[in-house]
Each structure stands twice: as C-alpha cells, then as structure tokens.
Write a structure and sequence with these properties.
This protein has helices at residues 23-32, 37-44, 48-55, 63-72, 77-80; strands spanning 101-104, 113-117, 128-134, 149-156, 158-163, 166-171, 175-179, 184-188, 194-201. It is built from 5 helices and 9 strands, in the order H-H-H-H-H-E-E-E-E-E-E-E-E-E. The protein is of the alpha+beta class and 205 residues long. It is globular. The strands form 2 sheets. A 6-stranded antiparallel β-sheet has the order 1-2-3-9-4-7, with no helix packed on it. It has a 3-stranded antiparallel β-sheet with strand order 6-5-8, with no helix packed on it.
Length: 205
C-alpha cells in the first residue's frame, strides 16, 4: 500500500554539523508515482541495489546522480520537505547554526561535496542558493543539464568548471555565470577545500 503521508520530518538542526537525510523522502516520492526501483534505476542509470541504499541513507549519491534522481521524480529537495509552519511570510532568515546540510559523493574517501542551503527550503519558488564545499579531488562525478541560469562566487580554493565542453579554472574571488541547459560539472583541482556560493534559478536541487 502506498504511504499516505510524508515520513517524519528530521529532527530540527541544532547546529550545522547535522546532516540532511533525504532517502526516505526520495522513496516516498517514488512510491507516490507508483514506480519500481527497477524502473527508476534504469532511467537514472544506476543499479537497483545502489538506489535502494540511497533511499535508506546508507550511501550518498554523487551530485550528478542526485540531480538525475530528482529530475526523474519531477521534484527537488525543497519540495520534498514541507515548509516550516512558523516561517515569516515577509522575510526568511536561516541562522548560521541552522543551515541544512546535504552531503553527496564519496565523503569517506575525502572526495565528496557538501551543500549548505542558504535559502529556506520550500520558501523560495525560483531561487536556489547553496555553499558548495568541495573536498580536494572532489567533483560532481558527471555532468548536469537542466533549464535556467546559474552563477557562483569562489570563497576559497581552485575549481575547474566544465561547461558545454569548455573547461576553465576559477580561483578565490572569481565569479562565473552560465546557462544551465549546457552540460556542466566541476572538480576541485586545488590543494585545499574549495568553497563556492552557488546560485541558480529556477530550483534544480
């Protein structure tokens, strides 16, 4: 029988070290669409076993894989979580200690990516903004493609962008812009963690 309601909301973030677990929400979205693990895994290009582990929060998909899963389900992370009932309708504030954190990729091997949400989930309609923290050697593990526009401001480190087949290096203090319909990805080519304030519209994660 299909679930009639979303799984319990994760505990309130006491500090930014707590991670956002989205596996149950991905599974809920899949079941609501009456789609099997096999059907979805074939569409996004992964094994049923891998997708099952993602849904059970046993492994973290790469940035590119997470985007493919969300796109296939016709949703994004903001839509997976209900808006806070006490959210101010005029202005939303996310305190530094309360920023939701999403980890992707192979974090145990030190090559993953952490996204810190700067815009309250479910509050924005078009805008999405995160701090991308990219471990040394970390990358999007594939290319992403969707509609919209995006820009970034490099806070720390050195990153190689790959946009439409063109590769360019951006360093601390640099900004960049591109149209999201071009296949794009990135990797940390520096010797320290890279940090980028990344803004895109409409929402893609």
């Amino acid at each position: 029988m299909l679930p009639k309601r979303l799984p319990p909301r994760p505990p309130s973030k006491a500090n930014a070290s707590e991670n956002l677990l989205i596996g149950a929400y991905l599974k809920h979205a899949r079941l609501n669409q009456r789609r099997s693990l096999r059907e979805l895994s074939e569409e996004v290009g992964c094994s049923e076993s891998f997708l099952s582990k993602v849904e059970n929060d046993k492994i973290c998909p790469s940035l590119a894989m997470l985007h493919r899963i969300l796109s296939a389900l016709g949703t994004n992370i903001g839509k997976l979580f209900e808006a806070e009932k006490d959210a101010d309708p005029l202005v939303s504030v996310v305190r530094a200690k309360d920023r939701p954190i999403l980890k992707t990729g192979h974090l145990r091997s030190g090559s993953g990516i952490t996204l810190e949400a700067l815009v309250p989930m479910s509050s924005a309609i078009l805008l999405e903004a995160n701090i991308h923290r990219i471990s040394v050697g970390g990358s999007s593990k594939g290319l992403i493609q969707h509609q919209g526009e995006e820009m970034g401001f490099v806070l720390e480190g050195q990153v190689e962008l790959n946009v439409g087949g063109k590769k360019v290096i951006v360093n601390k203090g640099d900004t960049f812009f591109f149209r999201s319909h071009l296949k794009h990805g990135y990797r940390n080519v520096g010797k320290t963690e890279a940090q980028i304030v990344w803004v895109n519209t409409p929402q893609s994660f």
